[in-house]
Design goal:
By secondary structure, the protein is of the alpha/beta class. The chain folds into two domains: 243 residues, 3-Layer(aba) Sandwich (Aspartate Aminotransferase, domain 2), CATH 3.40.640; 101 residues, Aspartate Aminotransferase, domain 1 (Alpha-Beta Complex). The protein is built from nine helices and 14 strands. Strand 3, helix 4 and strand 4 form a beta-alpha-beta unit. Helix 3 packs across helix 4. The longest helix has 21 residues. Bound molecules: 4'-deoxy-4'-aminopyridoxal-5'-phosphate. The site of 4'-deoxy-4'-aminopyridoxal-5'-phosphate has 11 residues, from helix 3. Catalyzes the reversible conversion of 3-phosphohydroxypyruvate to phosphoserine and of 3-hydroxy-2-oxo-4-phosphonooxybutanoate to phosphohydroxythreonine. InterPro entries: Aminotrans_V_dom, Aminotrans_V_PyrdxlP_BS, Pser_aminoTfrase, PyrdxlP-dep_Trfase, PyrdxlP-dep_Trfase_major, PyrdxlP-dep_Trfase_small. Belongs to the class-V pyridoxal-phosphate-dependent aminotransferase family. SerC subfamily. GO terms for molecular function: O-phospho-L-serine:2-oxoglutarate aminotransferase activity; pyridoxal phosphate binding.
């Protein structure tokens, strides 16, 4: 079976093998007589699915034992409230704004604490990342928030800041929604990592939260119980009914990732895919990407046609060629190719072939 290549930023394409396995198991999971959606979250069948998924993601991301892995609901945007509710103690927090998603985090935090804008990339219209050495950290912040891959602007941190060497003891909070599992994470630099599932993990509905144990237990009294990291951790993510089907699909994706060679192998493929596309864009006068080379995202590649009046024709031709969902985010315009883990290099090659052909036809 072949399908079109789907460049959606999220919810995004999933590995075909995962979808086919889910389809095969839809009405009867492993001879249990039940589909996964119909199982009690407390029954032995679902518990086994849950435990396998948790163990697999711990292994894939090499998460140390002093971090809890939580499967929550609410997506990345809910975490913009859940993080300050759990970590801010109502005090000051530092936020580095590098695009739309961290900007939302900064604004949402103000409902629960006092966010301080430690740095912003707004002066370059979010085409660069402000260097960590220049961040204006407050000194008394409860945490420092960054978005490690800005899905809309296409900027990515290729290494995490070491806050300690910047004289800051606060934990680092990372929103890794749109590049989770595409590369390894240096946990020695992280306090909390969160990510919605709908790019590299599975269907929307589950949020992966990885939190260092010493950060549990400091939630504000107004924090909803279902959003209290300690309550969720103490109950193995089953304080409330977790998004069982999304967790099952995430688990299938984790198994698929392991069969691909794990995160290290995937990272090499992602480097190769991104290089192919950026090299093509840089060699062209017909197309361009405006992000500084050292912070270009391997996952989300915004690009523009020099003649924007051709945008509609470009998209229509792409769709006809089996290349779906390339329209850029409305706040940036142009095009965006999201090339997450599930996008094979053949998809990037097909996109480049189409782009060359589109240009030649107009010449
Ligand atoms: N953070 C990032 C980096 C994202 O890309 C997104 C979604 N595109 C969000 C947060 C928000 O996620 P959700 O819509 O699941 O709340």
């Amino acid at each position: 079976m072949t399908r079109p290549f789907n460049f959606s930023a999220g919810p995004a394409a999933m590995p075909l093998e995962v979808l086919q396995q889910a389809a095969a198991e839809m009405t009867d999971w492993h001879g249990s007589g039940m589909g996964v959606m119909e199982m009690s979250h407390r029954g032995k069948e679902f518990i086994s699915i849950y435990e396998q998924a948790e163990a697999d993601v711990r292994e894939l991301l090499a998460v140390p034992a002093n971090f809890k892995i939580l499967f929550m609901q609410g997506g990345g945007l809910a975490e913009n409230a859940i993080v300050p509710l759990n970590l801010s103690r109502g005090g000051k927090v530092d936020v580095v704004v590098t695009g739309s998603w961290s900007e939302k985090s900064y604004k949402e935090a103000a409902k629960y604490c006092t966010p301080h804008l430690a740095a912003t990339g707004a002066d370059t219209r979010f085409t660069t990342l402000p260097a960590a050495a220049q961040w204006q950290l407050s000194g008394d912040a409860q945490y420092v928030h960054i978005c490690t891959n800005e899905t809309i602007h296409g900027v990515e941190f290729h290494s995490l800041p070491d806050l300690q060497t910047l004289g800051c003891d606060a934990p680092l909070v990372i929103d890794f929604s749109s590049h989770v599992l595409s590369r390894s994470v240096d946990w020695s630099k992280v306090g909390v990592a969160f990510g919605g599932a709908q790019k590299n993990i599975g269907p929307a509905g589950v949020t992966l939260v990885i939190v260092r144990e010493d950060l549990l237990g400091h939630a504000l009294p107004i924090c909803p119980s279902a959003f209290n990291y300690k309550t969720v951790a103490d109950n193995g993510s089953m304080y409330n009914t977790p998004p069982t089907y999304s967790i099952y699909m995430a688990g299938l994706t984790f198994q698929w990732l392991k069969r691909q060679g794990g995160v290290a192998a995937m990272e090499q493929r992602n480097i190769a895919k991104a290089k192919l596309l950026y090299d093509f864009l840089d060699s062209s006068s017909f197309y361009s990407n405006q992000v500084a080379h050292d912070c270009r995202s391997r996952m989300n590649v915004p690009f523009f046609l020099a003649d924007e009046s051709r945008n509609d024709a470009f998209l229509a031709g792409a769709k006809a060629a089996g290349l779906l969902q390339l329209k850029g985010h409305k706040s940036v315009g142009g095009m965006r190719a999201s090339i997450y883990n599930a996008m094979p290099i053949e998809g990037v090659e097909a996109l480049i072939a189409y782009m060359r052909d589109f240009e030649t036809r107009l010449a």
